[in-house]
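Sample entry (410 residues):
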Amino acid sequence: MYTKHVKTKFSLALLLCLILCLVKLPAPVAAETELNFRWILPPEFYRGNDFHNNRAWVQREQSGPWTLFDTDGNVIKDGFMARSIAQSATHNTIFRAIENDSETGWDMFGFLDDYSGDILLVPKPYRSGDAPFFHDGIASRREENGLRGFIDFEGRWIILPIYENFFPMQDGLVPARKDGKWGIIDRNGEVVIDFRFEGLRILGNGLFVASYGEFYGLVNINGEWVTEAIYERFFRPHSPSRLIAAQKDGKIGYLDENGNVVIDFRFVGVGYGMRRGLQVHNGYFTFNDGRAVVFLPREEEASLPISMEQLIALHSGGRIADTIYKWVVINESGDIVPTEQYDVIWPFHGGLAPAIRDNRWFMLDTEGNEYPLPHAFVRGEVSLARSDDGRIFRAIFRNEEKTGYFRVMD
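Predicted structure, serialized as tokens:
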């Protein structure tokens, strides 16, 4: 009997010790984030670009040489001297040379191959703001009479200067204005949509935003109206989506590719002081990964459109709690995906959306689950910029003036 009691007490004491030990153990970081967080390039660089075409130019020290990295952190080209290098998903990489032109004093700009980093066009002198932006090897150029065409890297005319204006090329198509009307041409100058619209922009997926009077509608590749011109603006998505974000009577709703209303116009729209027509807000209001980030009023009667000033304030340190709005995530049926309340939610891309609450950075998945980034990621001290593939981010540590790149996987 005595032995049995001793064994029981010993077992209880051992269990108590184990519980106390477990309580004192720190929670592992992996359990907190539940994300595969990995630095591709540690935060030890002076500045750098976002990854485009799986490449990013990064400068280790101010006024030092630039290095071209791939998304695995491998060096593609090293030791390239330039004052600045700008990459984009919409045009070839442009760089500003160290020296100015000795005769004119103008800046010298050249172009690089997006993948190899080799020089495609040696630096030439341009006035500030006049450097051409080549897209797929061609760039718009204006003649002295004000008419525009497209040239190649050799300066040869690819499209003769017979047009009054262009909008940026997308998918090999260019909105162009001739004799006061807009149409669409391809990169060879062939007319795709005749010049008969008051305004015309590329939305994507074979659809175009056309204006009629003060309002806008959708036309197809044949120039036929898909919807009536009854909308205030459309929003261009980051990636192909079956749903199109449009604004009517100050509210945002969603159409399908045939112009049918799929989600009613009930979300907070964009203020009328902003340019109408086609809006590009880095993916806001549009569907990516089957989710869209939109605004709702906190109270039913407070449904005024949000202004550009309010959007900028939110991304510059403002709090959504100080406004009459709240962020919500919706699915393609228009249902709200339950999430915590955040000061800012960025659009989804690659299955994740960055968000901020209480000055901390989080990642949200498409089901609304949140995953905190490491504690060093504090709003105001760290800003994030996302690269093309949606899972790679550039982190800028402002206090230390350092930049690094990381990848997140769930």
